[in-house]
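Bumping my old thread because nobody answered last time. Still need a sequence for this structure:
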């Protein structure tokens, strides 16, 4: 528009000057090297205006041609982008359907024209990994890592692939530095937790548990389960490295709340008995039964090995005087009597325990006691009872 205005101004000026100078056209002489040009002033003005007009028209024509060329390039470029997106979408569907080879082919077919090549390479890597082609899997991940802002998505994908392949060491080596950079990413936290569990890295798992709850990766109940598993694992590690002395020292260093955890106490008892620390195990059992009377601890008493079991009998009998309906104490006393081959009394205590609660182990002990007394029919009836309970639980 501006150029047209300028053009009309020049034409108007030319007409005005031409009119005013009619009959007084003047004279113009231009000499360039051996060439001489002669013309009137009016002719010069007309030539000048025509030249300007030509330049303006030519520039407009060039711009139209350029715009047409650019629009054509953009059209074909957008068409290729649409094709790339369509193929990628189709490839993702094929990947979800399990057609991994075709999915890999489609997502990489026009990756150079896709506006999100990172997505294409990640899907291709997953497809190659699903086909068992680890070389292509790693190649696509390398291409994906060359894209901008790709580190988090690439390393999470890589870690998932390592975990699926049960390469937990490699997964941990990938996730640990990622966790330092993205400490609140819920996927990184979940994968790191899984790696810690599989690698039995119990102390790091304990340290991670509060973070997992804070970021809502796990619930509070799951946190308690994880902490219990980790502390049991720590007990196993210490027992393996340092024996019963290490176990006792470690337990003494724990907080009061930890020492109240009945599952940990049970695990510690089993480890102490395994490492022939029967005196220490019995002391632990007595202390905790006297404090809170957890019936589950009674089951460890028959496994204790002393030259004289009288102290064990006295302890159980004293508790049964206070509470004759303590199923755990009745069962433990019956098992001690079985070790003494006192089948009749063992039968009485087992039957008493089973009237209080159903326990498959006690039914098994009762079957053995009856067989030892040649009460074959009664033993058979108890065995049928066991099968009925098992079938009911399975159903």
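Sorry it took so long. Here it is:
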């Amino acid at each position: 528009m501006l150029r047209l205005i300028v053009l009309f101004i020049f034409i108007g000026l030319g007409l005005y000057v031409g009119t005013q100078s009619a009959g007084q056209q003047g004279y113009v002489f231009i000499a360039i090297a051996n060439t001489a040009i002669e013309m009137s002033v009016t002719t010069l003005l007309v030539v000048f205006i025509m030249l300007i007009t030509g330049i303006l028209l030519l520039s407009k024509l060039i711009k139209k041609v350029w715009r047409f060329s650019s629009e054509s390039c953009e059209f074909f470029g957008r068409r290729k982008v649409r094709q790339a997106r369509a193929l990628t979408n189709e490839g993702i569907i094929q990947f979800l359907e399990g057609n991994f080879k075709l999915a890999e082919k489609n997502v990489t077919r026009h990756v150079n024209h896709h506006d999100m090549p990172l997505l294409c390479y990640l899907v291709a890597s997953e497809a190659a990994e699903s086909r068992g082609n680890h070389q292509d899997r790693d190649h696509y991940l390398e291409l994906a890592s060359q894209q901008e802002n790709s580190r988090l998505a690439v390393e999470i994908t890589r870690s998932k692939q390592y975990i699926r392949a049960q390469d937990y060491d490699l997964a941990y080596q990938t996730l640990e530095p990622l966790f330092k950079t993205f400490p609140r990413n819920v996927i990184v936290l979940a994968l790191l937790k899984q790696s810690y569990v599989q690698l039995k890295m119990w102390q790091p798992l304990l340290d991670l548990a509060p973070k997992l709850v804070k970021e809502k990766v796990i619930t509070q109940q799951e946190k308690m389960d994880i902490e219990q598993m980790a502390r049991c694992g720590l007990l196993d590690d210490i027992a393996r490295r340092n024996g019963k002395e290490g176990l006792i020292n470690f337990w003494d260093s724990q907080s009061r709340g930890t020492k109240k955890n009945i599952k940990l106490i049970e695990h510690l008892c089993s480890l102490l008995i395994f490492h022939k620390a029967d005196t220490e195990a019995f002391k632990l059992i007595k202390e905790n039964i006297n404090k809170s009377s957890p019936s589950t601890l009674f089951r460890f008493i028959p496994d204790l090995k002393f030259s004289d079991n009288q102290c064990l009998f006295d302890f159980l009998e004293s508790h049964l005087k206070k509470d004759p309906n303590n199923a755990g104490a009745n069962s433990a006393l019956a098992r001690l009597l079985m070790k003494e081959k006192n089948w009749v009394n063992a039968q009485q205590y087992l039957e008493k325990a089973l009237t209080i609660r159903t326990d498959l182990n006690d039914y098994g002990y009762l079957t053995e006691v009856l067989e030892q007394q040649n009460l074959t029919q009664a033993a058979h009836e108890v065995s049928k009872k066991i099968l009925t309970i098992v079938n009911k639980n399975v159903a």
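The first strand starts at residue 28 and ends at 32. Let me know if any region looks off to you.
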